[in-house]
Amino acid sequence: MEGLVGSGARGRLGGAAEDGRAPLAMPVWYLYEPGGEIRFITGGKSRKMRLVRVAGRVTLTVQDKAPPYRYVTVEGDVAGYEEPADPADRRAVAERYLGVEGGVAYLASTAHTALETVLVRVRPTRWLSRGESMG
After folding, report:
1. pTM
2. Of 71, 17, 91, which Cα lies nearest the Cα of 47?
3. How do residues 57-77 score in pLDDT, each as one tens digit?
């Protein structure tokens, strides 16, 4: 299970929403090492960040891009925030998903928002998986 979460596939972050609204579910870039915390970066003033602060917990779903479409859903409690997100973490996330060259370009194009970002650390509490060879 942890292998798929650590594979670099994009995740879908889910969480509680305001009264009368459907739960929040949106793509997210994240970092994870087996046995550790899930870390993702978002805008400090975003709806996602407001909801995470209120709920104190999130769900992350990661799915393979190709058949047999294995997936893992991880529930977890927020373990902490780092405001603003450390430049090294921003670089690690960008390079994980865009490669070194793409990561450098992304960081340059978003440098004006760097001080408004928050790194969220999530401690996994429950794992659910479906698919073959979850390993």
Report:
1. 0.87
2. 17
3. 999 998 887 777 788 899 999
